[in-house]
Design a protein that fits this description.
single chain; alpha+beta; 5-stranded mixed β-sheet; 20 strands; globular
Amino acid sequence: MVVPDGLLNNSGESTRCPALRRFLFRNTQILAIVSLPDYAFRKSGAQNKTSLLFVRRWSDKEKNEFDSAIEAARADLNLQDLSDLEAEDQAISRALEERDYYVFLAEAEAIGYTPAGAPSQENDLYEYKDQEVLAPLKTILGQYRTFKKDPKAYKGVDKPPCIAISASRLYAAHPTHRIDPKYHIFKHAEEVKPPHGLEVYMLKDVLRRRKEKVIPNDFPDQEFKTVTLTQEGELTPREAGKGKNPPDWHGAYFKEGQKWNRIRSGDILISRIDLWKGCIGVVPDDFDGAIVTDEFPSYHVRIKYQHKVDVKYLKLLLRTSYFQRALRAINTGHSNRRRTQETDFLALKVFLPEKRVQEKVVAAIEEVERRIQEQQGELKRRIEMLDEIMLRHVTSESLEKLLSNA
């Protein structure tokens, strides 16, 4: 069946998505889950990120045996001090460990047509030739057939990304039991040793959330500086009067009782909605003390790690293609406003060289950026010269002057 990814990864119990996942584990054998690209159903007007979910309903005998395993787990485990939900989670985990099986996970990047809907020869799912579906090993269908021969021995492949994971591990890998392939495939790839000379850190050990709340409406005459974050990682002033924004940023125009968060120079600032698109930056001095909504959490480096971490390097690192893929993998939801949960963000691992090396890398990148800005300024100057020449009188002498470094 085709399902929106929110069913596979939404974390809030109020969405009933975690409850659905518990239902699946209790009543079915999950055979395979295949992640589809964002554009899979765009041509028909659907914007949701979707996956293919293959399950087999337990037979009556299997269901009775699994329920018995759950009840035995409840009896064996000391669950009196846990909530009903926590007790159920632990019992399901124990039952899965005793009656374990393997699940096939894959991620399709090409599906036989382009985002615009035009036919394409690129298809990770299967090959279609002479009105026949073929399953070579380079396709997900071919890999699934290989997996079925011996699920426990299946090693997986990198392209298209395919792995096998035990049901017990699939259930226990995340507190909300998310089962979206992109998340688990990334976590599988994350289990690599750091390159020589680099140390591995979890972001939750390095970063600490800044929680400096302010209620602007309590200061009606004060003008606040509000910011937003671009996909290039730059902070820009938030435009007053645009959309639902107030006519200006004096405290009197903010909603009564609404809490905002102060940010400080040197903080790492992210957008929960667009982090996977590159919205991560470092707060510059001129935005020190500005305020942001809860959709833009900020973090500072813990004191014990300040001699090991350069925040500008960390920003560059988290904007690399590897981490952009990682951030796409950990976000939740199925629409264009997929959010990154803080626990998943802080659970990411980063490999860092010595701080002096980080600083050299940052300096080299900033020097390149400075040169690019100079060239862009020079280009703008010469175009303006050309405009001026055209408005007056074009001569070969004036054009030669333009071509020279006049």
